């Protein structure tokens, strides 16, 4: 858990997203959570590893985001991987629906954070990378690092 200067408390990041996908657009969406989910998320008990979003019936839902059970939740604890509704403006939902209908595009969460007390998700419109694209990117980044090191030494 890290804090940003803008009053955001990041509780989870999807580290593999930028490696496995090419990010095209980023949106900020609110997340509709139950009581114990909020408390568990504030503790940082969240995983975005296999999460994705989809537009269904004019609403956006986040699937496979794991929020672990709250320790003091007793019988009122939530289901860890239930679908969660994302809160966006109508025109943003329409734009996301149009983009996800295009071949190869998907919605993935990049990070979850609390902003002024509200749970938010950074949602990206992304296109999956193939294995050789991933290897090419890694080689290019390694070459850039090597070049920067060489320039620093001189």
Q: How is the secondary structure organized here?
A:
Blueprint: E1 2-3, E2 8-13, H1 17-20, E3 21-31, H2 35-42, E4 46-47, E5 52-56, E6 59-63, E7 66-67, E8 84-87, H3 90-101, E9 105-115, E10 118-128, H4 131-153
Antiparallel strand pairs: 1-2, 2-9, 3-8, 3-10, 4-7, 5-6, 6-8, 9-10
Question: Any overview of this molecule?
Answer:
The longest helix is centred in the last third of the chain and has 23 residues, at 131-153. Strands 1-2-9-10-3-8-6-5 form an eight-stranded antiparallel beta sheet. A two-stranded antiparallel sheet has the order 4-7. The protein has a single domain (8-129), classed as Small protein B (Small Protein B, Chain: A, Beta Barrel). A hairpin with a 2-residue loop joins strand 9 (105-115) and strand 10. The mean pLDDT is 88. It contains four helices and ten strands. It has helices at 17-20, 35-42, 90-101, 131-153, and strands at residues 2-3, 8-13, 21-31, 46-47, 52-56, 59-63, 66-67, 84-87, 105-115, 118-128. It has 154 residues and is of the alpha+beta class.
In short:
The chain has helices spanning 17-20, 35-42, 90-101, 131-153, and strands at residues 2-3, 8-13, 21-31, 46-47, 52-56, 59-63, 66-67, 84-87, 105-115, 118-128. The chain has 154 residues and is of the alpha+beta class. The protein has a single domain, classed as Small Protein B, Chain: A, CATH 2.40.280.
């Amino acid at each position: 858990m890290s804090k940003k200067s803008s009053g955001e408390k990041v509780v989870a990041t999807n580290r593999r997203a930028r490696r496995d996908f090419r990010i095209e657009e980023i949106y900020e969406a609110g997340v509709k959570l139950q009581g114990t989910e909020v408390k568990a998320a504030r503790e940082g008990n969240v995983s975005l590893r296999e999460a994705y979003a989809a537009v269904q019936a004019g609403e956006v839902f986040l699937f496979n985001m794991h929020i672990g059970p709250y320790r003091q939740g007793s019988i009122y604890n939530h289901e860890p991987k239930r679908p969660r509704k994302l809160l966006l403006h109508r025109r943003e939902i329409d734009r996301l629906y149009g983009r996800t209908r295009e071949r190869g595009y998907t919605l993935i969460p990049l990070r979850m954070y609390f902003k002024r007390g509200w749970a938010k998700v950074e949602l990206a419109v992304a296109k999956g990378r193939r294995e050789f694209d991933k290897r090419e990117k890694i080689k290019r980044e390694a070459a850039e690092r090597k070049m920067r090191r060489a320039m620093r030494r001189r």
